[in-house]
Each structure stands twice: as structure tokens, then as C-alpha cells.
Amino acid sequence: MNRNSWLRQRHRWLSVAFTVAVIVNIIAMVQEKSTVWGGVLASLPLGLLLLTGLYLFPLPYAARWRGR
User: Which residues contact 42 (CB under 8 A, 6 or more apart)?
Assistant: First the structure.
């Protein structure tokens, strides 16, 4: 498995982790037990999603550019 496919798989799992963190945060807010860790719990996967997404986004364009 090359680096790009490995990173793409990690990006997908990070999106699952982010979704779970947001759901946990919403449940905590509904139960009025909102804490600081709830926001941080969602922010960590979101930041990692941003970094991996910024790397993965230009890959098709770069491949097309290299193919010319």
C-alpha cells in the first residue's frame, strides 16, 4: 500500500472519529452536561482532517499536471 492510499484510509477513519465526537458533544449539550473536553474531542479529529484533506485535495490535479 503506497503512502497516498494509506493517508486516504486514515482520512476516512478520521471522518468517522469526528462524526462520533460531534454526536457525543451534541448528546452532552442536550443533557446540559457540556464541558470543555467535548469541544476539544471534536476539534482534534477536525484539525487532522484539515491537514490530511489539504494534502489529498491537490493530488488529482498534480497527477494530471505531471501527465502532460
Answer: 18, 21, 22, 25
Cell 462524526, residue? 19
Q: Residue 16 belongs to what domain range? A: 3-67
Give how many domains the chain has, as a whole number: 1
What is the reported pTM? 0.78
Distance CA 1, CA 37 (A): 35
Distance of CA 13 to the CA centre of its chain: 8
DSSP 6-21: HHHHHHHHHHHHHHHH
Among 50, 56, 45, which residue's Cα sits nearest to residue 19? Answer: 45
pLDDT tier, 1 (very low <50, low <70, confident <90, very high otherwise): low
